[in-house]
Amino acid sequence: MIAALDAWYPPATAASWDRVGLVLGEPTARVERVLCVVDVVPETARQALDLGVQLIVSHHPLLFRGVSSVAPTTYAGRIVHDLIRGGVALHVAHTNADVAPDGVNEALADLFGLTDRELMTPEGIGRVGTLPTPLPLRELTKKAAEVLPVTAWGVRAAGDPDRMISRLAVSSGSGAEHLADVAVTGADAVVTSDVKHHYASEHIASGGPAIIEAAHWATEWPWLPRVAELLRNRFGIETIVSQIRTDPWNLYAPGGELIREQRG
């Protein structure tokens, strides 16, 4: 099974800073039930143990930065101990899943029904395609809120609300560094996350495509059903997609009266 995951999402295609592949578990161990998650956090680790799965497939690495200890006094160390004790392996597909043909950005593009798809960057980050029906930015933002998994902070947009969007780019996860790439694709807007204030302001002021920003977690969760289906079809095993929202932003309070559409 690990060989199949590595074939679908080759570790060599991951960013140099990334930490992907098998993290815990014996490569030859028998697997009958898999849990697919975006994040390995105490809640999803407990879910895996409660469900009796033998493997977690995660998008985000558990051990992202170099560590000198996995003592159970840290949250990550505690998870490592609990998963090993429970016989649960862990495999990570992160940036290698972002760029893959059956990966995160393809799943995100599917939500919007994009046709005539192209790579957003030569490295395979993101996708660009044509919407089934052009929509004004205000309506496309509503659609994004409808098709993406729900989070506390919802979906927001930057740009002219009446701008018609025909060509749409999608870039899962942190997309701020790729705004310049979006601008040269001919896209009218991009769906992404984690765009800082100054990045968005300068991009819009320069006449760049509109930005539709959702929670980081929300742009990556749609991949989970896809990888679950691939595993189920290939190996005939039970696959479970975690419904636990691991977006860390879990509370939202609206402010006072909103001054709308001030920038024209």
From TrEMBL:
Coiled coil: none annotated. This is GTP cyclohydrolase 1 type 2 homolog. Belongs to the GTP cyclohydrolase I type 2/NIF3 family. Keywords: Metal-binding. InterPro entries: DUF34/NIF3 (IPR002678), DUF34/NIF3_sf (IPR036069). Gene3D superfamilies: NIF3 (NGG1p interacting factor 3)-like (3.40.1390.30). Homohexamer. The keyword Metal-binding applies. The lineage of its organism: Bacteria, Bacillati, Actinomycetota, Actinomycetes, Micromonosporales. SUPFAM superfamilies: NIF3 (NGG1p interacting factor 3)-like. NCBIfam families: YbgI_SA1388.
